[in-house]
Structure formats: C-alpha cells, structure tokens
Amino acid sequence: MTQKHLSIAITGAGGAGVISCGELLLQAWGRAGGRGLLRKAFGPQIRGGESAALLKLTERERYTAAERYDLLVAMDWDNYARFEDEICLSADTLVICEEKKPVPEAVSALTSHIVTLPFAAEARSTHQDGRVNMLALGLLGKLLGLPVDSLCELAARKLTKKPDPYREAAELCIRRGAALSPPSELDIPPRSEAQRWYISGNQCAGLAALEAGIRLVAAYPITPASDTLEWLAGGLEAVGGQLIQAEDELAAINMCLGAAFGGVPAFTATSGPGLALMTESIGLAVASETPVTILNVQRGGPSTGIPTKSEQSDLNIALCGMHGDAPHLVLAPLDIADCVFTTGWSVKLAQHLQTAAIVLSDQFIGQSTAIISDPDRCNFEFPAASAASGDYLRYRLTESGVSALATPGDPGCRFTADGLEHNEKGTPSANNSDHQQQLQKRLHKLTAFDYGDSWGRVSGDGQVAMVGFGSSSAAMEEAAERLAEQGIAVRVVALRLLSPLPVNALQKALSGCEQVVVVEQNHGKQLYHYLKGQMDFEQTLHSYAVPGPVPLSPVQIAERVAGEVGQ
Amino acid sequence: MSNESLALFLAHSIELESEAKNRYQELSETMATHHNDEVAQFFARMAREAKRHLKEVRQLAKGLELPKIRAWEFDWPGEEPPETASYEELHYLMTLRQAIEIAIKNERTAERYYRAMAATSSDQETITIATEFADEEVEHTAALEKMLADLPENGSCPRLDDDEPNMPE
Amino acid sequence: MNKALKAKDYKSDIKPIWCPGCGHYSVLNAITKAMAGLGLDKDNLALVSGIGCSSRLPAYVDSYGFHGVHGRGLAVAQGLKVARPELTVIALGGDGDGFSIGGNHFMHACRRNINMVYIAMDNEVYGMTKGQASPTSPEDWLSSKLTPHGPGVRPFKPAAVALASGATWIGRAYSGNPNQMAGLIAEAIEHPGFSFLHALSQCITFCPEQTDWKSIVKERAEPACTHHDQAAAVFFNEEGFDTGVLYTQQRAVWPPQQGSAPREDALDQLAAKFRV
Asked: Which of A556, A435, A566 is nearest to A488 (CA)?
C-alpha cells in the first residue's frame, strides 16, 4: 500500500531564509520521531536568489520526490515561475502566503485554498530583527504538531554565532508564527519513537569512506560533490588522515594513486566532468592494480550540462570510460542511507581486489537530506592477501587473480608499479603471453569473486519486473506499490553492483518474469543497452528512460509499466 | 578659447551624468535580480533623475563641438566620475536607508566637483553653468535627506541571511 | 557612416547574476569601455572563458563568445586566434580556473606569445562552488570548509609566473577603478603579443575582507619594467597590489605571418610526391 505522505514547499527570494526554515523543520520533525526528505531548488544567483525548500514527510524511509504538494508556503512570489516544473499544485493544495503580494494566476487557477498572512509586517512588529522564515517555521511546526520549544532550540543551535538581538528575534518570531498558524485539515503522517539521523547522501558516503579505512582524500571542488569533500576535511582530521586540495581532477586521482601505492587507502569525489578527466588515471589504477575509490555524484550532462540537477547519464563513462580493456568495479548506492553500506563496500572491495571502484551516486541522493535510522554498515572483512615472502612477484598469477600487495617499507619486496603492460615481476613487457595473462588476471579477479547477496535489492513478485539503479530504486519501488493497488503485481530489482554485472543473480531474480522494464534517468537508455549487451534475456525488454532535470516520477513509471503490460 | 574650455567642461558633465545614469540603472537591475525590490526601485528612480539632468546638459552643449575623450582619459578627482556609485558598495541585503545614504554621498561629491570647476575656471560661461549644477546637486541632496528622515530605522542585523550561499554551477 | 558605439552598446541583453558588490561588474564595465574606446567591431571580436563566476562574462557582452570547460579557456582562445588571426580574441576567467586547473595552459600561453589578451579576474576564491581556497588565497585564509586551517601553502604569484613563462605584457588592475582598468585593457589589446592582465576583483560573498583592498591598492609610480631582471625583482618582492602596466617587452609574435598565398595546385603537388 502506498505510504502516507505530506509534501510541503517553502519558497522565497532575496535572503528570505526558506532553506533554513526547511532544514529546521525537518530536524524538528525527525527529533519528534517523524521521517522525511528535504530537497532544495534555486535560481542561478549565489546570494539573494529565489529558493525553494521541498519537504516530503513520510511514514517509511523510502524517499522519492513529491508528485504534488499538499502545502505551499510562499514568502513572496519573486520568480516563482522558475519552480513551476517542480512544485506541482492541485486543487487540494493549501497555499499560505504573504498578504501584501498578489498571488500569481498560475497558482490561483489551480487551487482556491489560499490563506494570506501579513508575514513581513508581523515579523517587523514582533522584533526589529524579525524574519519571515522564523515565522513560517513556527507556523509550520504548529501545523505539524511539533513542540515549539524544540523548534526554538534547534534555531538557537543554528544561530549560535549570531548577535543576541538576532537570536532573540528568531525565537520570538517562531512563537509568533505558531500563534498565527491557521486551522487546517492536513493529513499528517504518523511518527514513532526511534532515534534517528539527519544526514545527506554525500555525508553518508564520506562517513562510510572513513569507516572503511580511507585515510587520504585528494579533492577538487565540483558541484554536486563538494559537500562530501568538505565533510571529509573535518572527518579526516579527526581520524588522523590527510586531505590535499588538488589543482585539478587529474592531480586528485593521481594523488590518490600515490597514497594507495604507499599503502594508505585513498578516495576522491567528483561529478561527470571531473570523472571524464580522471579516466586516464583510473585506467592506470586498473593496469597497475592500485586500489582507489572514486565517488561520482552524477549531474545533468553532457559537458557542463545542468550542474545542480540530478541525472543518471554517467553510467556509460563509468563502465567504459577507460581506454583499452580495463575491467574495474562500478557500484551504485540504492538511496541516501544505502550510501553508507555501498560506499563502505566499494572501498573494501577496491582495497581487496586491488582495483578502481567507481561509486555512482547522483545529485538527488547526494544533496538531499533525510531522516534515516542508524544506517546499515558493510561489515565484510576481506582477508589480506597472503604476506609477501622471499621471491616476491607483485603481479604473480594466482588462483583468485589477486596477488600479494607489498608496500614501500616492506623489506625485500621492492617493485615498480606500472601502467605499461608487464610480466609477473612488474617489468614492462610487450610479450604476447604476458599481455594475455595479465589481462585475464585483472578480469578474473573481479569476475571470480563472490559478491554474495549484496549485489542488489529484490522486492515484490509478478510477471513484470522493473530493473534500475541508484535513485531509480525508490522510484521503482513506489511505482510498484501503485501498480499493486491497481492489481498489477510487479517485481523490482535494484542493482547495487553494475560491473562486473551479476548476470546469474540477475537472471535468477528475473526468472518467471515475462517482461522487464529498465528504468533510468537518462536520454541514451544507457542501462538498457548495457544489460542487453551483457546477457541474454528470456524476457522482453522495454526501456523507460527519462533524462533530468526533473526527478523520476513513480506515477509516470507506473503508468508506463501498466501500459507496457497491456493492462 | 572660451568655447574650448566650456566644451571640455560640458564633455565632462555629460560623461558624469551619463555614467551616473548608466550606473544607477545597472545597480537597479542587479538589485532586482537579487530581489531587493525597494532598493531596485530607488536606484531606478535615481537613474531617471540622472537621465533628466543629462538631457539638460546635452541641451546646453548643442552647437558646441565636444572633444572625443575615452573613458579612462577623463580628468576626475577620484577613480570614477563624481555621482557614480561604486559597484562595490552594494550588498544584496542593503536597506533603502543605506542606498539613500550612498546617493547622498554621490550628490555631495558631484556638488564639490562642480564647485571646484567653477572656482578654477577662467571662463565666465563655465563658471555660471558649473555653479548652477552645483546648486542643483544641493537641491537633490536636500530631497534625499528628507526621504531619509521619513524612513524607519533599520534593524540591527539587516545583512544576515540564514541560508548558505547557493552553488549554481 | 556608423555611429560610434558607446560602452553600453557592447553589452548584451542578459543581466549578470553576480552578487551585488561583486568586482566583476567593474570588469565588465571596463571591458566594454575599452571596446568602445578602441571602436572594436563586434562581429570580429571573441570572448573565451572557462568555468566560474568570472567565466560567465562572455554572455554579458554582445560579441562572439565561447564558454568552455573548466580551466581550458586559454587553450580554446589560442586555437581560435591561430586559426583566425584577424579576430580580436580575449580570454578570461577566474583565479581557480586560470591558475589551478588552467595553470599549465597559462604557462604555455605566455610562452607562445600569441597576439591576444588574457584577463584573470582574481578574487582569491572558488566562488561558484561555494568558497574553497584558490591558488591565490592567502596561506592563512580560514574561511573554507575544505581547508579549515587555511591552505597552508604559499600563494601563487601570477605576475611572476607570467614573466617566467614569457608573457610580453603584464598589467594589473583593480575592480575599484574600472576606468583605469579600461585603459589597461585597451593597451593590452593593442600590444602585439600575449598580454596578461591580472585584475583584482573582490568577492563580496566569500571574501568580504577584500573591501580592505581599497586602502592598499595603489597605482605604480614608475613606468613599466622593460627588462625581465627588473620585473622579476618587482614580482618576487611585491605584495601584489600595485596597478598599471608593470612589464612590457617586444618579442616576435607566434605564429609568424604566413608567406605568400598557397599555390592552386598545392594538393596535387603533395599527392604527387607519393608517386613511385
């Protein structure tokens, strides 16, 4: 059954502070036992532009973008048109807005539930430093049944470095806002007791990296990955690691390889344009068998694309971006909380298999903040490759394909890592059998490894299946619920491991199905073509591929799947 | 010779008013883009006033052949023409009070410039016109000061924004 | 006869989204004044940029423009100028774009001495991605979450690197003085060779302390250095706030002008050489 949810959009411009309002509200909601998701949308200005805080309060921790907003709080209507694609209103939407500004026709045409309040005047009269966003916070908190003291405390914590009058004004406005709250019949999702986290996907990935042993990060800022790197700057210091701000992505990836060669697990985070720059050296990681993990937070492409919006269009480059035959790992977190498990797993796999792991997150997962339960960790411990001894061959052919890895400092095991093709010793070689053997070794170590059950998440049952990865996962799962309500049973297979593709496991997961719809957020049907190329399907394959910038819609996915199965 | 001196003075006056108009127009546009409507409207009004004054000056200069001077070759007391607000004094959260204070400062700078022109010229027409212009600036200043007096006080922390800067690219 | 264009006429219809208080407004103002002062033909004018707040500038000018990828504006500009030497080509970008990821291209562009202009709008920060330190940030600049204890490394010296790499015109300007900047840009355009203008341009949002620049920037009193030893002494010892033309030199522009026009049968001649 589809879960109960309440979607709230808060918009405003010119420094209205609506993002802070959304953040504090979600924090208070989470503290009170609720679950929910916060996304943000902006105009192109760095300061003072039009902004929107987009909240979805839910029963369960399955987070998709809101189809329709139940409540819109508008501090003003400045450039509101920018958000019309994202903030869909219906006849039932309650709009609470500033009395002094005329409501746009686009809004009043859709809904007649409009309550105006003198936000600006009330803020000014409450305190000379009063702000409308704190009024809105109090108002919304009251609507949701949240204790006003909790809101005040969270606001005080956020504003701790601000001058006293400002902080006083905030508390007074929150309380005043609660008093101004209009009566409403909003259907509010239930809350429960458990202790939860308030965290973004990017932060989850950063935490996981440290927990999995990363102690060197080389960073170059890029939207939307910079948050991970900035979080890691503080985190690494706490655990005795190091962060180098590199001059560019070419330097960043190579600095990681240097650290890894020195035995220190290394990590970097980037987005499409940065990943494109890194490909040559990711190939070097593969050829020299140097472990490295690269988080790629996908954004609208190609080229500079749409930096602040999500897409899943880097699959191709993640899978095939390296020149030559360069098999490596590609994984994708299923959702915000899963960034912890999957990033941790990726680091451990990269370290154990001595290869490059690309973790495909995306802007939706990376930059959304959510309330989650204590996230699952990857607790696998992989045995260290047998200690190097006597006659050390860095690239020794072994049954598993993984050779013992010596590190500078280890006595008697000196070797030179090389991107040039090499023999077992590591000496450059153009020899036929060396190339065949080393190519085979580097492939075999990945394909022979037992990845266990973590390769993906399978849910539901039916003759139709949906397959996807990353932020498609939650969208598919919600679509499946909607279809179930219509009497259409659907199986959902959300892939974590993309390369090497777990063909057997995937075939097993799909057995009994007749149709498969491949769901993805890109224009080129990248996953669809990849799956078709990698395995034979008993089923008929269909493609549902819709690029960004708007998030995937479970309603539209469900419609398409229903249509595809001819019902 | 007196025509040359007047022509040079008027060329400077035209540039002064023209730059003031263009600058206020730009400042108005950027404040509008950043949703500070009160200040945007004020700067737009100042641009209109500068435009009016520019028209007057151009009228006075009719018939005269004005020297062609490139933007960086004008002789100003400061870096920019008097009455041209510096881009760098702006802030997206500035109050109307702060905007008016900037405008008043500009008017006073312009007044000082015109008085100096009157004091140092040996051409009677230049002196007359420069003095007139200086007196007009005094009027403008008085009008702005009245506007200021009618405004409520600012809050103590007008330039605080709870939200972080955005990352557009 | 065409009416002489004013600075305003070189602006496009697109309104800048830079923060109010940003120094880049002054740079845009100065560029358009320089164009008007030189009477440049808009159709034979190209602005090339990379990625960052500074790099948004070409969209605000009514000329041809190329908004490329991060750090590679100079490479694109050089390719354009070599292919179309009659165009006026101005490359521009920020300190992150130009001295970090673009550092390599900066060195080699100076070395080639192609006849073009490069304006680096230096605000000592990565503004567009929310305030990380850049190569010109002070060593102890504490305002970035990525380097919370400050970068801890000595800032990059753009003028010194330009000199060592072979630039033949090095100037410095400041956003608080757009008229002076306009004059410098005009000179840079007219100089035959690679002209590097280091434009200090404050970032009101991430570096509000840069409003202090006003009191330390001063115009260089002496004429420009004409010998590299002299210039090196200046660039290695200065604080970096002197404005004006700092160094100028005459050196052969690359590539040298083509000789006579190609023969009509040139291609046939080339193919014929393969006959055995």
From this structure: A566
Interface test with A, best of B27, B30, B35, B153 (most A CBs within 10 A): B35
Question: Residue A139 and residue A387: Cα distance in Å, rounded?
Answer: 64
Helices A272-288 & A249-261, crossing angle to 10 degrees?
30
**What are C67's strand-pairing partners?**
C49
One-letter amino acid identity for C146? Answer: L
Instruction: Quick: pLDDT tens for A550-559.
Output: 999 999 999 9
pLDDT band at B155 (very low <50, low <70, confident <90, very high): confident
Residue B1 pLDDT exceeds 60: no
* CA–CA distances in Å: residue A233 to residues A18, A203, A207, A215, C149: 27, 12, 11, 11, 10
Give the other-Cβ count within 10 Å of C2's Cβ: 6
**Residue numbers of B between 103 and 162 with CB closer than 8 Å to C:** none
| C-chain residues near A273 (CB < 8 A) | 69-70
Q: Is A426 left (phi over 0), alpha (psi -120 to 50) or beta?
A: left
Do A547 and A313 touch, CB atoms closer than 8 A?
yes
If contacts are CB pairs under 8 Å, which of residues 218-257 in chain A contact chain B? 223-224, 226
Rounded to the nearest integer, the mean pLDDT of chain C is 96
Residue whose C-alpha is closest to residue B149's, from B90, B94, B96: B96
Q: Residue written as tokens 């009058």?
A: A165
Separation CA A492–CA A511 (nearest Å): 12
B27, B66, B87, B92, best to mutate vs chain C, most C CBs in 10 Å: B87
Contacts of C74 (CB under 8 A, 6+ apart): C48, C91, C93, C98, C102, C105, C106, C109, C118
Q: How many whole angstroms separate alpha carbon A271 and alpha carbon A294? A: 10
Chains that touch B (3 or more CB pairs under 8 A): A, C
> ipTM, 2 decimals?
0.94
Task: Supply the pLDDT for residue A389.
Answer: 67
- pLDDT at position A310 is 98
Distances (CA, A) of A346 to A58, A451, A530, B131, C64: 29, 11, 21, 78, 46
CA atoms of C54 and C122, how far apart (whole Å):
9
C51 → chain B, closest CA residue: B169
Residue A165 at interface with chain B, using a CB cutoff of 8 Å: yes
Query: What's A433's DSSP letter?
Result: H
Q: How many CB atoms lie within 10 A of CB A397?
A: 14
Q: Is A368 exposed, middle or buried (0-12, 13-18, 19+ CB in 10 A)?
A: buried
Instruction: Say if CB A73 and CB A97 are below 8 A apart.
Output: yes
Dihedrals phi, psi of C118, to nearest 5 degrees = -125, 120
The top-scoring range by mean pLDDT among A389-398, A495-504, B2-11 is A495-504
Cβ contact C178–B90 (<8 Å): no
| Closest Cβ opposite residue C129 in set A222, A237, A304 | A222
Residue C150 phi/psi, 5-degree rounding, is 90, 155
Task: Sort strands A329-331 and A497-499 into parallel, antiparallel or unpaired.
Answer: antiparallel
Q: Write down the pTM of the prediction.
A: 0.95
What is the spatial distance between Cα C240 and Cα C210, in angstroms, rounded to a whole number?
13
- Can you name the residues that pair with A57 across neighbouring β-strands? A6, A36
**Residue range A468-504, pLDDT digits in tens:** 999 999 999 999 999 999 999 999 999 999 999 999 9
Quote the pLDDT of residue A422: 97
What tokens does A385 get? 């490759």
Rounded to an integer, the average pLDDT of C141-148 is 96
Token pair of B13 as six digits: 């006056």
Say yes or no to pLDDT of C32 above 60: yes
The whole-angstrom separation of Cα A20 and Cα C231 is: 50
Pairing of strands A35-42, A369-372: antiparallel
- For chain C, say whether A13 makes contact (Cβ under 8 Å): no
